[in-house]
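User: tokens in, sequence out, please.
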């Protein structure tokens, strides 16, 4: 083969990873230089894995081969690959090495190049450069590009990624250093100070007042909430002024499951408070779980609104069961719980 054809053969081998027998089977019809991407096809009868392989190639390689393919008759081999193609490669390597050494500008540079292994067919470690090594070069370049394991396996046309990475990929200490250079810093660099906008977290007032809708969801979620008193809603009737024929209405304060009747208001008003009473029971004796030190020996009486509510319930024979349980256990409740109940009752009575 002429020097131009051998150069095209070597470039195609490095650019496709094709084996010598596969390159020998290529005709001008095997190349689709105008495709997106450009491709080279090996028919199944010539492929080692006995399937039709369509291999993408780089655009610059496609442009390099365009003029060569234009001169080749259709249906004829593009590359005249012989059985001694490995020997041809070694001779071309020797000629290229000689030309490279002769290009040295100084005696010291020439001596340095002469001692190196560059373009030798065998290096100091015993590795041999033959024609199949061009396929190894192709796979190594693919892996060095950062391609995933699956992509590298597909481009190498291997049945297993172990063969692609374990046999055909050759990395050096420079590849390892490049991988380490891409890692983030582990703290040797001086940290930068960053400031954050005050959001009022931990009871601190923000430096600049922000619109309610501009507050971040995180700060809104972390902001401590003030316990709201029992809510009151109108259950029935109307809110017209008092007078003849004025309809009564019912206000309901909800807080859990305990219902407490009227807590004051105009005639006809009635308010119910719902307190968490699911665990309230009327024991025969004081519960042993309570700490006697936290219970006053003489519990204060119920507040006036509470007494009125209980008296009205008794008078109307409508004492709710939850309220009866609360009244029965009142003397044994801790001071904090009694104070909370009285506060909710007082808040509901003034709505």
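Assistant: Sequence out:
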């Amino acid at each position: 083969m002429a020097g131009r054809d051998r150069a095209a053969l070597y470039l195609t081998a490095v650019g496709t990873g094709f084996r010598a027998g596969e390159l020998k089977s290529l005709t001008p019809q095997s190349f689709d230089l105008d495709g997106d991407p450009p491709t080279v096809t090996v028919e199944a009868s010539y492929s080692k894995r006995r399937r039709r392989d369509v291999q993408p190639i780089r655009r610059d390689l496609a442009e390099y081969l365009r003029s060569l393919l234009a001169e080749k008759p259709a249906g004829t081999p593009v590359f005249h690959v012989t059985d001694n193609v490995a020997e041809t490669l070694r001779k071309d390597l020797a000629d290229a090495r000689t030309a490279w050494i002769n290009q040295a500008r100084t005696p010291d540079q020439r001596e340095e190049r002469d001692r190196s292994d560059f373009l030798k067919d065998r290096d100091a470690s015993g590795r041999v450069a033959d024609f199949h090594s061009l396929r190894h070069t192709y796979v190594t370049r693919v892996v060095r590009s950062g391609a995933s394991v699956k992509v590298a396996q597909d481009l190498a046309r291997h049945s297993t990624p172990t063969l692609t990475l374990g046999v055909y990929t050759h990395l050096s200490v420079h590849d390892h250093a490049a991988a380490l250079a891409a890692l983030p810093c582990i703290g040797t660099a001086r940290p930068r100070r960053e400031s954050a906008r005050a959001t009022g977290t931990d009871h601190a007032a923000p430096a600049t007042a922000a619109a309610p809708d501009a507050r971040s969801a995180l700060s809104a979620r972390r902001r401590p909430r003030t316990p709201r008193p029992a809510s009151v809603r109108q259950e029935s009737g109307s809110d017209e002024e008092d007078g003849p024929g004025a309809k009564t209405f019912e206000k309901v304060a909800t807080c859990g499951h305990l219902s407490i009747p009227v807590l004051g208001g105009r005639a006809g008003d009635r308010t119910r408070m719902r307190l968490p009473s699911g665990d309230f029971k009327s024991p025969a004796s004081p519960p042993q779980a309570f700490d006697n030190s936290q219970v006053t020996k003489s519990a204060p009486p119920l507040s006036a609104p509470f007494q009125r509510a209980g008296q009205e319930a008794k008078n109307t024979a409508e004492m709710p069961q939850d309220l009866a349980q609360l009244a029965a256990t009142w003397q044994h409740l801790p001071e904090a719980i009694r104070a909370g109940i009285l506060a909710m009752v007082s808040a509901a009575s003034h709505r």
